[in-house]
Amino acid sequence: MFFFFFFFAIFLLKQISFKNNLPKKNSPSLLYTYLAIKLILLRSWPNYLNYSSSWNKVFSEWRPNNSPKLMDLLDDTVPGIGTYEDFNTIDWVREKSKDRDRHREIANKSKQSTVALLFSISDAFSGWLLMLLIGLMSGALAGGIDIAAHWMTDLKEGVCLNGFWFNHEHCCWASNETTFQERDKCPQWKSWAELMVGVSEGPGLYVVNYFMYVCWALLFAFLAVILVRAFAPYACGSGIPEIKTILSGFIIRGYLGKWTLIIKTITLVLAVSSGLSLGKEGPLVHVACCCANILCHFFTKYRRNEAKKREVLSAASAVGVSVAFGAPIGGVLFSLEEVSYYFPLKTLWRSFFAALVAAFTLRSINPFGNSRLVLFYVEFHTPWHLLELIPFVLLGIFGGLWGAFFIRANIAWCRLRKNTSLGHYPVLEVVVVTLLTALLAFPIEYTKMSSSELISELFNDCGLLDSSKLCGYTSNSGSTSGSVNATAANGLGARLAGPGLYTAMWQLALALVLKMVFTVVTFGMKVPSGLFIPSMAVGAIAGRLLGVCMEQLAIRHHERDIFRGWCSPGADCITPGLYAMVGAAACLGGVTRMTVSLVVIMFELTGGLEYIVPLMAAAMTSKWVADALGRESIYEAHIRLNGYPFLEAKEEFRHKTLATDVMRPRRGDPPVSVLTESGMTVEEVERLIADTTYSGFPVVISQQSPRLVGFVLRRDLVISLENARRHQEGVVSMSPILFTECDPPMSPSAPPAVKLRSILDLSPFTVTVHTAMEIVVDIFRKLGLRQCLVIQNGRLLGIITKKDILKHMAQMANRDPDSILFN
């Protein structure tokens, strides 16, 4: 599409032939051709804006004398004005105002010509086109990541002789020599021991496979951390804390760039395949946001407006969860509940559309080979009983306790990594943790398999053909089988635990402890690491253990009143897989503090629509318990650990302080640095800029009469002065700076003035010294302000920035105010 538009523009230029056959000066065809070229280049070539002024000079000679400048949408102020520096907060009010002005201009000009009307229609359609592209790109990347991670995970155990690109399951699909009891064994799949030393049984087989498993894990983890360190340091971690901060208006250059996308995609596959206790779901949100940010550069209204771009990133967050879990509705709710800072109704519709496209794309790729979006799809056939709400609530309590413990332990470990020499050796840390994980995981069946496969097996309801140890029951008649034995001719009956189930129980208990420990130390390392799947795995193990206990209790005491009616002939008493699903939701909710979106994600993830009530009970209990032990989710805790300037909307400000207690300058400090609307020279302003690091300056009438006039941003001021020195004739160090509307009287010999009223914000937000800080905090949260000026009777007294508020809140909470690192 880009090359089509570009070459079509070149074709039009050729038709003009402005070297050999210039059209007449008043030719209207030239005007429309010129306009068409500009519109085409606007859509196809983002850098064209940098050259717009040159084109205007070329064509200005041929514009009719009596013709107005027709819909010159590309004329702009000085390049760079209105942009932001790295690690700064955007001005939401100004960005929304710019977008309203742009809409108003397009609407007015659309009534003047057909071309302008077409431009207006294309501008309105561009948002939906962008959502379509984000959904397609994110869905394709997610499908590739799923397929590659599944293949590389199986590569640690062996290789397929029919083709090395087949994973274990696909390799054995076409085999006619597999059985239900050993469905994972086929002649086409060879373990590394069989290939290297030719042994198919005995201790040699175990030792060689153990060694190769550890070697592959170390190789994958080492490659992941090396690629992250060398090419894209921002590709490590989950990405959701930074995404939340960016959506609140903070600028982190490069965090959503193309190198971050490429390296995160590659290293995510490597990290998941290494067997570390991490998942790919959180990083997929980061990947989707990278796709959105890159695609935004092809659409002018999103590239040049940071607030509009954040609406797109909110939709991309929904896309990330949609492709991670196959849950488009849950993804939209996740973006609304958990990560978005500004989420208008228009963004809700577009998020839903983008999530739908992404889910459709992933379904078309079919990465799991089961014609479904997810690996965990289950179907339970036994209804739950009302009294089972008690163990479901117990799982919620466990999830809340796990969430509070995990957050405190992980933050303590990350703080230790940050403040000690441990943080200086990220490669060594990743290698050591991977080595310990692989050495301890291989001997246990439930830690050796990937977390996704473990959750799938724990969710599964035992059937007649299941050969898993979790289905190792003994019937009442005393016969033992690896599968479930029927006690009624028309279905499954009561099941007593057999030796296989007891073995599975103690292995699951050991796997639970290892998962908890390794998840604490893994999250936050310098590799892509998600938290959803490890948290769900912890909850699923705990839930399955409790479910089996409840099942055996109901079977052995079925004659008691409390269990009467639970174990009817021809049906299961209790479904342990349901307990695993509820436990997974509870632990994930305890860590992330999600509620509504979590329940929707879980029933989309598993297809268990009739089990919403148990999920809701567990999710709410988990949140209540976790909130009682600590108000922050894991993402908010990492935001505070990293010192990002994020004002959490859920946190209440209860202190009775006033604006005068927070504003700068404080007592004993020098007065606030200001500009005057007239009377200052270029040299004085440049000296003030060089001597300070402030992001902006208030403009007052004069030093003697500090009546507030407006506010000017530092970046806009610097760019305007550089542009004036470069392009405006006669500008010297002694040239006066004017923010006034009318020029004051000046002597003929005076150097020309630099007029900067166009970059002056004439309506900055102000409060008085007696305004309660509770109101000031609400203003900053709901309007997304960067700064607020403090006045009294029109006189400027001080300024309050977002950083000042965060420091004040940290001080009121007995935390270190210097932990707020960024401006």
From TrEMBL:
One of its GO terms (molecular function) is voltage-gated chloride channel activity. It is found in: Endosome membrane; Membrane. Residues 1-18 form the signal peptide. The keyword Ubl conjugation does not apply. The chain crosses the membrane at residues 210-235, 284-300, 312-336, 386-407, 427-446, 504-525, 531-550. The keyword Ubl conjugation does not apply. Keywords: CBS domain, Chloride, Endosome, Ion transport, Membrane, Signal, Transmembrane, Transmembrane helix, Transport. It is a multi-pass membrane protein. Residues 663-729, 759-817 form the CBS domain. Belongs to the chloride channel (TC 2.A.49) family. This is Chloride channel protein.
